[in-house]
Amino acid sequence: MNSAGFLGLERIGEDKFALDVAARVATGGGFLFGGAGLGAGIAALEAVSQRRVVWATAQYLSYAMTGSRVTIDVTLAVRGHQITQGRAVCRVGDQEILTVNAALGDREFEATGQFLTMPVVAPPEECRPRIPRSEHANSIMESLEQRVAKGRDIADLDGTPNDGRTILWSRIPAVIEGVDASTLAILGDFVPMGIGQALGLRAAGNSLDNTLRIVRLVPTEWVLLDIRIDAVQRGFGHGSIQMFATDGTLMATASQSTIARLWKA
Fold first, then answer.
1. CB-CB contact of 203 with 263 (8 Å)
2. How many CA atoms does the CB half-sphere of 85 hold within 13 Å?
3. Reduced to 3 states, what is the DSSP secondary structure of residue 249?
4. Which residues pair with 128 in a beta bridge?
5. What 3-state DSSP class applies to 219?
6. Which of 113, 105, 99 is nearest to 54 (CA)?
7. What is the H or E stretch that residue 149 is in?
8. What pLDDT tens digit does each residue of the chain (265 aa) get?
9. What is the chain's percent helix, strand, coil content, to nearest 5?
10. Fewest beta carbons less than 10 Å away: which of 113, 118, 129, 242?
């Protein structure tokens, strides 16, 4: 299965797509997982433009509940020789749910370099599994496998802040045709869980946005998520994620602002 198949994305017109919100792409709250929405928008934009995404950002406006049908309309605003810029508007009925803006393309440039280094951690098979909370039953968390390289168990969230850093190995076992931008959009939506880890509280949040920047895609089974929370103030959390292949290649970065929330008892 590829990422579009996992998302359930279908093309219903030259520049129109749709997906039915199934439990495998939904949150424990019963609505479309933000990273899945961004991933669907990226897949639609790449299909229409026939170019690879460079960056894409999603603004989350409302919720698409489990069982609803999301339609995605793609508009290519600028079609240059090397770069296309466009947007994908996702709706349920007439209500706009999220908007994805993106730039896509490739350029020839001889100089290259990677200036971020993957943190030194144990390989995934030596890290403990991350056990989803009971509230995550019938959600996207059952579609993911995650292992904790640096982070606290629920019982250890005692109100003591840490350095704001959480490191997870993550993968989607059903996606066997290789990690692509849409897969990284899904895996990159974990700034909210880093908020609780940073504060030492049973807390997370709802994403207001998510920006994904693609660096280089390479074959890898696992993706290392280096989650860094910058600050939590005024009821909002801000942070970023660096995503590495197992060989140390930086594949993408993501950043988010979220509404910080304590877990419901």
1. yes
2. 4
3. coil
4. 148
5. coil
6. 105
7. strand 145-150
8. 999 999 999 999 999 999 999 999 999 999 999 999 999 999 999 999 999 999 999 999 999 999 999 999 999 999 999 999 999 999 999 999 999 999 999 999 999 999 999 999 999 999 999 988 777 788 999 999 999 999 999 889 999 999 999 999 999 999 988 999 999 999 999 999 999 999 999 999 999 999 999 999 999 999 999 999 999 999 999 999 999 999 999 999 999 999 999 987 6
9. 20, 45, 40
10. 113
* Cα dihedral sign, 201-224-118-184: negative
d(CA 193, CA 207): 11
Q: Could you give the CA distance from residue 34 to residue 186 in angstroms, rounded to a whole number?
A: 8
Cα-only R_g, the chain: 18
Of the chain, the end-to-end C-alpha distance in Å amounts to 37
On whether the CB atoms of residues 33 and 24 are closer than 8 A, the answer is no
| Tokens found for residue 155 | 């019982």
Query: In DSSP terms, which residues pair with 104 in a beta bridge?
Result: 53, 84
244 φ, ψ to 5°? -115, 145
Which residue carries 């989350």 as its tokens?
60
Cα 150 to Cα 218: distance, rounded to the nearest angstrom: 24
DSSP state of 116: -
Neighbouring C-beta atoms of residue 35, cutoff 10 Å: 25
DSSP H or E stretch at residue 84: strand 83-92
* Ranges assigned E (strand) in 23-127: 53-60, 69-79, 83-92, 95-105
How many Cβ atoms are within 10 Å of 188's Cβ, its own excluded? Answer: 31
At 265 the pLDDT is 61
